[in-house]
Amino acid sequence: RQHSSPFGDGSQRLAYCFADGLEARLAGTGSQIYKGLVSKRTSAADILKAYHLYLAACPFRKISNFTANNTIKISAQNSMRVHIIDFGILYGFQWPTFIQKLSSRPGGPPKLRITGIEFPLPGFRPAEGVEETGHRLADYAKEFNVPFEYNAIAKRWDTVQLEELKIDRDEFLVVNCLYRAKNLLDETVAVDSPRNIFLNLVRKINPDIFIHGIVNGAFNAPFFVTRFREALFHFSAMFDMLETIVPREDPERMLIEKEIFGRDALNIIACEGWERVERPETYKQWQIRNLRAGFVQIPLDRDIVKRATDRVRSSYHKDFVIDEDSRWLLQGWKGRIIYALSAWKP
Question: Per the record, which residues fall in region VHIID (predicted)?
Answer without folding.
Answer: 51-116
